[in-house]
């Protein structure tokens, strides 16, 4: 078990490790930690360590092929959702949902180059 001061890790399986690194570092404020592209890289944002595993990585090979994709996603809090949406659309990125509002705030779903979801969330004030 990791200690509370270590990164929380999430593994995303991607088709193209370098495209995923570029996406997360250019558009979402992640920092490249290590790279063994084309098999693997990891990027960090705050306490989140995102493991980007390409088809040649051991993490991808260990995944049974009959598993379907779920609704899992990483959740990134933003201060101004509309500003982030405009910035990312201006960069040519497309969203996978419309903006949704609820009692806790507003959110929209973005997909990385491999189709993994990222939820951008603005808490209610």
From TrEMBL:
InterPro entries: Glyas_Bleomycin-R_OHBP_Dase, Glyas_Fos-R_dOase_dom, VOC_core. PROSITE patterns: VOC (PS51819). Residues 6-123 form the VOC domain. This is VOC family protein.
């Amino acid at each position: 078990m990791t200690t509370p001061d270590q990164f929380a890790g999430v593994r995303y399986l991607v088709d193209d490790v370098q495209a995923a690194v570029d996406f997360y570092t250019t558009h979402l404020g992640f920092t490249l930690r290590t790279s063994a592209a084309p098999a693997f890289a990891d990027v960090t944002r705050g306490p989140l360590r995102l493991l980007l595993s390409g088809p040649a990585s051991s993490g991808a090979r260990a995944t049974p092929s009959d598993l379907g994709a779920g609704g899992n996603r990483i959740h990134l809090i933003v201060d101004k959702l509309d500003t982030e949406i405009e910035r990312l659309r201006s960069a040519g990125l497309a969203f996978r949902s419309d903006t949704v509002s609820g009692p806790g705030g507003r959110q929209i779903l973005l997909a990385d180059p491999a189709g993994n979801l990222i939820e951008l969330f603005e808490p209610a004030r």
